[in-house]
Amino acid sequence: MIRYGLIGKPLSHSFSQRYFTEKFEREGLHDHRYDLFELDSADEVRALVRDTPGLRGLNVTIPFKQAVMPLLDAIDPLAAAVGAVNTIRIDGEKLIGHNTDVEGFRQTLIPLLQGKKPRALVLGSGGASRAVAFVLKERGIKFRVVSRSRERGDMTYDLAEPTVVDVCAPHQHHAARHVSRG
Description:
Elements: E1 2-8, H1 16-26, E2 32-38, H2 45-51, E3 55-60, E4 74-75, H3 77-82, E5 87-91, E6 94-98, H4 101-113, E7 120-123, H5 127-138, E8 143-147, E9 155-156, H6 162-168, H7 173-180
Parallel strand pairs: 1-2, 1-3, 4-6, 7-8, 8-9
Antiparallel strand pairs: 3-5, 5-6
Helix pairs in contact: 4-5, 4-7
């Protein structure tokens, strides 16, 4: 059995297991399985890999996208630049971290730009938001990060009044929400 899964906590919001189970079935991959692994700590990832036969890869969601990084054997340069890992490839005993949020957001953002350089608000300061900020910097788009704490963002949610939101992204709010829901 070839296994994949998702680590994080909580996982009750995730649609990943259903999505991958249906995908494996559609593609005739009857020897593939996708499980949810709710961990109390990122430190448990090594034991999970050791104790789960056939495990080839993991998706990573909150709150482990940053916490898992020091536990890995290698980190893809893009994930290192972003400062967050959302995918772990298991190669024998080696755990290699990647970030696929960047490419996902690039593909969402590029058609929306159509030659424009709008301003943007990044809602949140976690792992997926880091990928969004990375792409915005890459494209030369000015942005501000909205977070629960002033230490992790440019402003807090109580300061993100409708006027600020409209100036930054009047018709494109859905692009950032698409990526940051994990």
